[in-house]
Amino acid sequence: MSTLLLRLAAPMQSWGVESKFDYRKTGREPSKSGVVGLLAAALGRGREESVEDLAALRFGVRVEQPGQILRDLQIAKYQKSKSRVDTYFTYRDYLCDAAFLVGLESSQEEVLQGLVQALQAPAFPLFLGRRSCPPTLPLVLGIRPGNLEETLTREPWQASDWFQKKAKRSERTVWLRVLVDAPAEEDGIFQHDNPKSFHIQRREYGYRKVQELPSVAIYQPDTETVEHNPMKGW
Predict the structure, then answer these.
(1) How far apart are CA 140 and CA 129, in angstroms?
(2) pLDDT (tens digit, 9 = 90+) per residue, 161-202?
(3) Which DSSP string corresponds to 97-143?
């Protein structure tokens, strides 16, 4: 078993799981449909082509840097009649300054090797949920031996330097959330983001079971007590 690791980081990301009408929300973590869409773009697949093989990859996310929600208000006008122009408001949510470690598990390493090659020379532009959200580098971290759970636990922290320094100054243990596709025989929470088709006229999504693993302690400060004596040495 092998796992391909991706680092999804950018000034802005948007993962629409519950987006409807004029209010486009974002999930707090990358959706499986969004990541499968990114892989399909790298491979050069059209919207009418099957993504069944990509959706079959076991998927997991570790939250390296949670980010903050930014809401964008957009104002649009449309001609309702010759004498009337109506104005309406739409909202777009973005996840700012976030970073994620994404794992894709397969028993066929050659499949993952093909994805690495495609991501390093993508056929279509890559973006994190919306076209206005291109990823920062490095995107591909490589293929690791082992299953999804082991790999997401072992990998070094992928948060930005400034975020790591800020977290370490707090002198608290840093815990990272880990969410994975639940094995068939285990319990999980159902999430409606497993893509079946990206066809422009009939986008289809199914449910998948998501399981949250025990959080990973990625940084633990030295707990040794040091006596503070300002008069020592006098």
Answers:
(1) 17
(2) 999 999 888 878 899 999 999 988 888 999 898 888 888 878
(3) EEEEEEEEEES-HHHHHHHHHHHHS-SS---SSSTT-PPPSP-EEEE
